[in-house]
Design brief:
The complex is a heterodimer of chains A (about 240) and B (about 800).
Chain A: E1 12-25, E2 28-41, E3 45-50, H1 56-63, E4 71-76, E5 79-80, H2 86-96, E6 97-100, H3 112-120, H4 129-135, H5 151-163, E7 169-173, H6 181-198, E8 201-206, E9 217-222, E10 225-231
Parallel strand pairs in A: 3-8, 3-9, 6-7, 7-8
Antiparallel strand pairs in A: 1-2, 1-4, 4-5, 9-10
Helix pairs in contact in A: 3-4, 3-5, 4-5, 5-6
Chain B: H1 2-14, H2 16-53, E1 59-67, H3 69-75, E2 80-86, E3 88-93, E4 102-109, E5 120-124, E6 134-138, H4 139-144, E7 152-157, E8 160-171, E9 191-197, H5 198-205, E10 210-218, H6 224-235, E11 244-245, H7 250-291, H8 293-302, H9 306-346, H10 358-384, H11 416-427, H12 429-467, E12 472-481, H13 485-489, E13 494-509, E14 512-522, E15 533-534, E16 540-541, E17 548-551, H14 552-558, E18 565-570, E19 577-586, E20 594-595, H15 598-605, E21 610-618, H16 627-639, E22 643-648, H17 649-703, H18 708-745, H19 759-785, H20 789-794
Parallel strand pairs in B: 4-9, 6-8, 14-20, 17-19
Antiparallel strand pairs in B: 1-10, 1-11, 2-10, 3-4, 5-8, 6-9, 7-8, 12-21, 12-22, 13-14, 13-18, 13-21, 15-16, 17-20, 18-19
Helix pairs in contact in B: 1-9, 2-7, 2-9, 2-10, 2-17, 7-10, 7-12, 7-17, 9-10, 9-17, 11-18, 12-17, 12-18, 12-19, 17-18, 17-19, 18-19
The chains are: A alpha/beta (about 240), B alpha+beta (about 800).
Chain lengths: ~240, ~800
């Protein structure tokens, strides 16, 4: 069930223990994850840094219930996701997780408002689509189709779509990957604001190290394992990021 | 180029299922084309071979009785090459295992064997000279009754009962199909041909030194018309019934009708299939290539020229066509063989082999190949216009516009998922229309497949039910006066007995003529009678008080209008030539008839009212449950001296149904199978294409938390929309096809098919389309269940 924003840091929302993931690519086994332990705490803004192929997307997909680990466990608020059925994972995604992707994944045949409504129709106590679009600053453009919106605007629609159901966790996979610097900063600012104002636990994947400065915690992955964890005493505002 | 071929091989593997369904559509087109044309070719060839091997005559004539010396005069008619006089007779065969007697046409075999219409011996040997009781039987009749050399058959010949010994079973080119005069269907159980020594037939009928039947072969270049006129002139004094050519020879007439019907079907239906298959091939290939849009752009960016890319996709299409053609030819061969096996039972030819018509096969494959080529090139061309850079950019969202569903007041009732489908439709209405047209075409073919059965059912159930209100029809040996009807009224269970007078006649207007029977009901009860004239709409029509009421097709053949005078040459008795006015015409589905009032007919003949057959209404028989009563009636009728034969209406209709079920039924089944395959092919391909195009959207929705059932609904609503639109379209197309087919397929002189599409047939067609849709839906559902969310989201498109 959707729970109210919990601004009290410390309670574990997602807990991954000793995760491994092995893909078979033709003749070779690819070890995408080699024993990752990670806890995502309520209300925190975490950045997962890593080069391409470091396993960060795999980790995010497993945390979001899109993929399952080869071994290890993932628990959402104490409930085991590792052995959940397809239907249970669908429910988990529907009720608790908001996803944001590099390529937005909007439905081209639906307007911004309708793309958000697509999600608000699914849950019991959502925001109004209009409200979610106001939050990302797209109130005036809510009746535009994706083809009528810029890349940054499309990504903000995707964010509105993710937050509209008041998720516990937002998982963002390279949300600025397809955007220029200016637009990218705008999008990150929206994500930070939502984390602040709504208390949504947020994990942002990026290969762009400077983005880490806005997070409370920066976890760096390398070769499928956690190479470094760094706590930020004073996260900076997104607008002051430079790359 | 090698890498491209590798891509081709991989594409073929990935597209496996889709390629198979398209190939099946092509196969259906090719198979139906080759099956029907092959069956027609085989039959036409078998007939030509049989006729030439057994020396089928060119001219046929019958008379009452003429001395053999007349044959010499006939032989001297210019153009006559070979002549043969024969003695024939009608006999009844009271087979102990049948309640109604079978009837037989008895043909005398000249000493030394026939010079024309020689017999093809299936088993046994010809009768020994001077043996009066040895006979050959026509093979269909022998098969039907399990008679073989060694069997004996009871017969009443010339009024005398005798036991005939079967010494052989034979086929005659004059009796490929055996139909008793006045019957509507081939009936090998109740009608057979008996061949015996000419002297024996002559002795039994008192025709020693005479003949009553003559056939002739003409020399090359002879004028058939002149010979027929000469024969008529020479035979007139001997009670000639009129000479005719092959075209009016009964077996050949019906055979030609059936062949013409098959030829019409073979010319009209298969191209329709092929056309539909070609259309679908085009549509499907266009989409297939469009799906590979970004790949085409990438290939161009890499430096491939347009021609190589075009050829690459052409190869893909060729593989599909080759696969479909091979499958279609094999299927066509198989179905053709099956069809021929069935025909072998019906058409009695010594050899009837399934043939593959090479030209047909080549044509079928060529049409498919052309459709594929055109489809490929038109679709590739539009894609080749793309800038290569397009492949390098992230995909721009497709453009959509607001439409009808965005009108204020409408929008809030349309949930986003449905909105997706509706906008897709509004964005690409042509695509939806093409898909629906494809499904509608297969629906139309399904409707057409049902039509022949429907038309036959209408003829037997609706039309004949209204026309014939009798249970038993009795044919008399000789015309009798009306007083004779009283005898029949006294038979057990008989509630009504009415007579019918039939007079053989030739009707003529200028040079146009036809041999028909003038028909009148005696006594004349009009619309209350046991046999009524009923038009194609089912209305009862009463013959006018004066003049003739004629089947409108016959009036058309004669070029006569109501009010015109018709020359009527009576072909029996005093053989008068009358001129009677055509008073009215009636649209009828069967045959060519001329009706008169009994009073008018007998006044014209200057005779007291006579009857040639008797119609009986029998209590309890209609339900055909009272087998005991029926047997009792049969036995009494069989014992009556005046009775030549009789038929139960229920049995006659049953036979007719069984026969049309066999011939038309099988044909319809083949049509239905192919049409269903096409329906499945179209729906399935549409579903697959939609799935590939929407894969990314649907995966996004899954990630957002939509369940499998929910995303399936979105995709399936698209399929449902296509099918829903196709249902009424299919009805319209089906009706159009049926209309054109009804006119083209029936032999207008034998029967004219009513344009009928029953609700059941349409429901059946719709059911098949819906089942096809459900089947594809299942396939799609399975694919959706295996949708790889991560892979779809990671790739661009």
């Amino acid at each position: 069930m959707v729970e109210g924003p919990d601004k009290q840091l410390g309670e574990a929302v997602l807990e991954a223990r000793d995760l491994t993931k092995v893909y078979r690519m033709g003749e070779v086994d690819v070890h995408a994850l080699r024993g990752v332990d990670l806890t995502l705490r309520a209300g925190e803004l975490m950045v997962l840094l890593g080069a391409s192929g470091s396993g960060k997307s795999t980790l995010l997909n497993i945390l979001g219930g899109l993929d399952s680990p080869s071994s290890g466990t993932v628990a959402y608020r104490g409930a085991d996701l590792t052995h959940a059925t397809g239907a249970q994972l669908t429910r988990y995604r529907r009720e608790h997780v908001g996803f944001i992707f590099q390529f937005y994944n909007l439905i081209p045949s639906l307007t911004a408002r309708e793309n958000v409504a697509l999600v608000t129709d699914l849950v019991s106590t959502p925001m109004a689509p209009e409200e979610a679009l106001e939050v990302v600053g797209l109130g005036p453009r809510m009746d535009h189709f994706p083809s009528q919106l810029s890349g940054g605007e499309q990504q903000r629609v995707a964010i509105a779509r993710a937050i509209a159901k008041r998720p516990d966790v937002m998982l963002c996979d390279e949300p600025t990957g397809a955007l220029d610097y200016r637009t990218g900063v705008l999008v990150l600012d929206v994500l930070a604001r939502i984390n602040q104002d709504l208390g949504t636990t947020t994990a942002i994947i990026t290969h762009n190290a400077p983005v880490g400065a806005m997070a409370e915690r920066v976890v760096t992955l390398a070769d499928g394992a956690i190479a470094e964890t760094h706590e930020n005493e004073a996260p900076v505002e997104a607008s002051s990021l430079r790359w | 180029m090698k890498a491209l071929d590798q891509k081709l091989a991989r594409d073929l593997r990935t597209l496996g299922g889709q390629i198979l369904t398209i190939a099946l559509v092509v196969a259906s087109g090719v198979a139906s084309f080759t099956t029907v044309r092959g069956a027609y070719g085989s039959l036409a060839r078998a007939r030509a071979d049989f006729y030439s091997a057994q020396r089928f005559p060119d001219v046929f004539a019958r008379c009452e009785r003429a001395p053999r010396s007349v044959l010499e005069r006939l032989e001297q008619v210019p153009g006559v090459a070979v002549i043969e006089g024969r003695v024939t007779e009608q006999a009844s065969l009271p087979l102990p295992w049948m309640t109604e007697p079978a009837s037989a046409h008895v043909v005398g075999l000249p000493p030394g064997g026939p010079r024309l219409s020689s017999l093809h011996l299936r088993s046994g040997r010809p009768p020994r000279p001077n043996d009066d009781d040895e006979v050959l039987l026509s093979d269909a009749f022998a098969d039907e009754h399990d008679l073989a050399p060694g069997s004996t058959v009871p017969a009443i010949l010339g009024g005398v009962f005798r036991e005939l010994r079967v010494v052989g079973v034979a086929l005659s080119p004059e009796h490929v199909l055996v139909v008793a005069a006045g019957d509507i269907a081939v009936d090998n159980r109740r009608r057979g041909i008996v061949f015996m020594n000419e002297d024996a037939v002559a002795a039994a009928t008192g025709r020693e030194g005479a003949f009553d039947d003559v056939v002739a072969q003409l020399s090359a270049g002879a004028s058939e018309e002149a010979v027929l006129a000469a024969f008529d002139r020479i035979l007139e004094p001997y009670g000639g019934y009129g000479a005719h050519g092959r075209d009016r020879q009964l077996s050949n007439f019906i055979l030609s009708g059936e062949l013409a019907q098959l030829e019409n079907m073979a010319t009209q239906i298969p191209p329709l299939f092929l056309l539909v298959a070609a259309f679908l091939l085009h549509v499907v290939l266009t989409r297939l290539v469009q799906l590979q849009r970004s790949q085409v752009a990438a290939l161009k960016a890499l430096g491939y020229d347009d021609l190589s890319i075009g050829l690459h996709y052409l190869k893909l299409a060729s593989v599909i066509v080759a696969l479909g053609a091979a499958l279609g030819l094999a299927l066509g061969q198989w179905f053709g063989g099956g069809l021929i096996d069935l025909y072998r039972d019906y058409f009695r030819f010594p050899t009837l082999e399934a043939r593959v018509d090479v030209a047909t096969a080549v044509a079928a494959v060529a049409v498919s190949a052309i459709a594929a080529t055109v489809g490929t090139f038109t679709s590739v061309r539009s894609i080749l216009r793309l800038a290569p850079a397009e492949a390098m950019r992230p995909p721009a969202p497709a453009r959509y516009r607001r439409g009808l569903t965005d009108l204020p007041g409408v929008r809030r009732f349309v949930p986003p998922a449905l909105q997706m489908t509706l906008r897709e439709v509004q964005r690409r209405p042509v695509r939806l229309l093409l898909s629906s047209l494809g499904i509608a075409a297969s629906l139309a073919l399904l409707v057409l497949g049902q039509f022949f059965g429907d038309a036959m059912a209408w003829l037997t159930d609706t039309y004949m039910e209204r026309q014939q209100r009798w249970d038993v029809q009795v044919t008399l040996r000789e015309p009798r006066d009306v007083g004779g009807l009283a005898t029949f009224r006294q038979l057990p269970g008989v509630t009504r007995a009415e007579g019918m007078r039939q007079v053989p006649a030739r009707v003529r207007v200028g040079p146009r003529e036809r041999e028909v029977a003038l028909q009148a009901m005696v006594p004349d009860r009009g619309a209350e009678g046991l046999q009524r004239v009923v038009d194609s709409e089912g209305n009862v029509v009463e013959p006018p008080v004066d003049g003739l009421l004629m089947t409108s097709k016959l009036a058309e053949i004669l070029g006569a209008q109501p009010g015109d005078g018709i020359t009527v040459e009576v072909l029996e008795g005093s053989r008068e030539t009358l001129t009677l006015p055509l008073t009215a015409t009636v649209e009828e589905p069967f045959g060519l008839q001329v009706y008169m009032r009994s009073g008018a007919l007998h006044a014209a003949l200057r005779q007291e009212p006579m009857v040639t057959s008797v119609l009986l209404q029998v209590d309890g028989l209609a339900a055909s449950s009272d087998a005991e009563a029926a047997r009792d009636l049969d036995q009494r009728l069989a014992r009556m001296r005046d009775v030549l034969g009789f038929v139960h209406r229920a049995r006659m209709i049953q036979e007719f149904r069984a026969q049309s079920a066999k011939n038309i039924g099988v044909f319809s089944l083949v049509l239905t199978l192919f049409a269903a395959t096409i329906a499945i092919g179209v729906v399935d391909n549409n579903a697959r294409v939609s799935l590939s195009m929407r894969r990314r959207d649907l995966a996004s929705l899954r990630v957002l938390g939509f369940s499998r059932a929910e995303i399936s609904e979105i995709l399936l609503s698209e399929i449902a929309l296509q099918v829903l639109l196709a249902l009424p379209l299919g009805l319209v197309f089906g009706n159009a096809m049926v209309t054109s087919m009804a006119a083209g397929v029936a032999d207008p002189e034998v029967y004219r098919l009513p344009v009928i599409v029953t609700a059941q047939s349409y429901a059946f067609a719709a059911g098949v389309a819906l089942a096809a849709a459900a089947f594809s839906a299942l396939l799609v559902r399975r694919k959706l269940d295996r949708l790889d969310l991560i892979a779809v989201l990671k790739t661009r498109e």
